[in-house]
Write a structure and sequence with these properties.
Oligomer: homodimer
Helix content of chain A: 40-55%
CATH topology of the largest domain in chain A: Aspartate Aminotransferase, domain 2
Order of helices and strands of chain A: HHEHHEHEHEEHEHEHEEHHHEEHEEEH
CATH architecture of the largest domain in chain A: 3-Layer(aba) Sandwich
Radius of gyration of chain A: 21 Å
Chain lengths: 393, 393
């Protein structure tokens, strides 16, 4: 196909993403899809954002449409720094850079730290968008197993000693895909390891504020100081379509990220930053997050109840205390990839676990999203899915 | 400073950008600055964009705020494909991908084609944002001299034979920084070279539609087919703060760019794409471009008249037929970098030519922007600048 084209090595090495093909199938009409990772669109604050647009263009006019600084709109960065400070993360606005969603944060982290062949420690399974972003820089992935408390840190320390990885990538809260949250003890220990061995830990934290149950745990960045780089985003809290995220790194190295961001896209949309700031500055955000938590909590409960009610023996799942996803284990030897066609025939869809594993995959796993369907659809969808499990297990 | 941090090699090799320090100085109050590359904010269609926001959120609601496909909003891509087709560039919407400004197009091109040590042919001087984007992939730059017809193609062919570059980077219309436009003959020959040697030519074309004088020339992509990759943007035509650009590549290789874009930021702001489409779909764009051309043409004329009126002998400049910039040559041996302080003392600023040269620089050059100041300010600013030249030459 690319007969005459000479691409970079990274380009040749990138495989086509299986999940995108899967998502196409799952978007057929009538299919109840638990496959995507979409927030509930009916909860987007459309009217408030309409007011925000009007207000920004009236107050700021051309300034909201002009080029702006690479690090991002200072009042928005200040808002974020203050919000983080309330959680005990003592940062100023100069430690926060606005990115095009946290996906861009991942790309910039890869660009900043990874050379061909550098080692990166990732959870097994992990967010596939991070694998995709990092792969552009051709690292070697080291996978670390998880239990219900998160990454197994004895494995992490062993790998650190053996391979001196350039970074450790974690989703500490309500992990995508597994729904697992790292325990307090593990958080403390991971932060110690980062300091002891001088290894940056990337805490990708899109769901941290979406806790429905249990007690809030300190963020890694709160425990860890400079070695923790936190990625955040408004995608799950306000709207993903505005593409506004942020990266928190110590000022000491912010210059590196600023330069990389400048080369990548100069800066994030001035207008979208103003729009978000206009929305959050009046205290809308906390109120809106409460609404999301209430609704997502119901959906999560509906999914877990339905799983309990309909699933045959031998099927297990995680019971996350927040976030958007839960993770299902089929009996050993059963292929979730193989079952997907059968599920789609029955008009229900999920993402098989396979693409979330950097190396050795466990194909008896699958990810279910509970934020994008009503409780009724969830009940009906899980019923259909359990039927498939029953027939083919 | 970065005592304990281990970054990627690209990070260590990136130098801090001199121009950003310069721009800080030039933004002091009372300084008439010809240094930036900003479009005229007083011409932004603020009211129409306000209507577009209102209309998008009313008509599309949550859909304009949700995640969307990596390649970009199909109606906007169709609009662009049709617009290009009217110019003789026969492409469909599947040949167009939306990017976060054309700066992201440059980053993706670098990512797609460049390995450490790959050769890239660039004009001398060239757009420094392209040098910055490409440097993240550690290529070697090969510089080709320009005359009033653009790149000297004998040099290009020689370098192709010698080094087999991975790509040729050109700004064919009203180049930033020099204001030079490639002649028709050179365009035809460059396209032949691309085909003959299978080398992608990146035509970075933010100013192509801003021609005030002279006859329209065919775009490289019109002459060249598959080997020409065109980058476009609404930054100079509507608003840079929305960060909406595009890349035109043949469908055959679009999959590569789609994958890279997905890893970089998933997709460009759904809302900003809708907003722009809402604005352009009713024919606003052509009318607005006419307005810009009329005003920028006046400013360009004002700058050239003032240069003629005030400059001492030995100072030369280009007289571009469009775009945002012109390029000044001081007598050999005079340093434009050295004179900048004197100019700022007199409350006028420019960018010295130095950072626009990938390798051997000519420090007796400087870039002047004429889009961001009124004709009166231009006259006054050039008068001050000419005074500095007179005193220090």
């Amino acid at each position: 196909m690319y007969l005459n084209w000479i691409f970079s090595e990274r380009t040749w090495e990138m495989k086509s993403s299986a999940i995108r093909e899967i998502l196409k199938i799952t978007e057929l009409p009538d299919v109840i899809s638990f496959a995507g990772g979409l927030p509930a669109p009916e909860l987007f604050p459309v009217d408030e954002l309409k007011e925000a647009c009007e207000s920004v263009l009236t107050k700021f006019g051309p300034r909201s449409l002009q080029y702006s600084i690479t690090l991002g709109y200072p009042p928005l960065r200040k808002f974020l720094a203050e919000r983080l400070s309330k959680r005990g993360i003592k940062v100023g606005f100069e430690d926060v850079m606005i990115t095009a969603g946290s996906q861009q944060g991942l790309d910039l982290v890869g660009k900043a730290f990874l050379d061909r062949g550098s080692f990166v420690i990732v959870e097994n399974p992990t967010y596939l968008g991070a694998l995709h972003a990092f792969k552009a820089y051709n690292p070697h992935f080291i996978t670390v197993e998880m239990d219900e408390e998160g990454m197994i840190l004895e494995q992490v320390e062993e790998h650190i000693k053996k391979s001196k990885p350039r970074l450790i990538y974690a989703v500490s809260n309500f992990q995508n895909p597994s729904g697992i949250t790292m325990s307090k003890k593990r958080r403390e220990r991971l932060v110690e390891l980062a300091k002891e061995y001088y290894i940056p830990v990337i805490d990708d934290n899109p769901y941290g504020e979406l806790r429905f149950k249990g007690e809030d745990l300190p963020y890694l960045k709160e425990l860890g100081g400079d070695w923790i780089i936190e990625l955040g985003t408004f995608s799950k809290l306000i709207s993903p379509g505005l593409r506004i995220g942020w990266i928190v790194v110590s000022k000491e190295v912010m210059g590196v990220f600023e330069k990389l961001k400048q080369g990548a896209d100069l800066h994030t949309s001035t207008f979208a930053q103003h729009m978000i700031y206009e929305y959050v500055k009046n205290g809308n955000l906390d109120r809106h997050i409460e609404l999301l938590k209430k609704e997502y909590s119901k959906r999560r409960d509906a999914m877990i109840s339905a799983l309990k009610k309909y699933c045959p023996e031998g099927v297990r799942w995680t019971e996350p205390e927040g976030g958007l996803f839960l993770w299902v284990f089929l009996p050993e030897g059963v292929s979730a990839t193989g079952l997907l066609d059968k599920a789609v025939e029955r008009k229900v869809a999920y993402v098989p676990g396979k693409p979330f594993f950097a190396k050795e995959d466990k194909d008896n796993t699958l990810r279910l999203n509970f934020s994008n369907a009503s409780c009724e659809k969830i009940e009906e969808g899980i019923k259909r899915l359990a039927q498939v499990f029953k027939e083919y297990l």
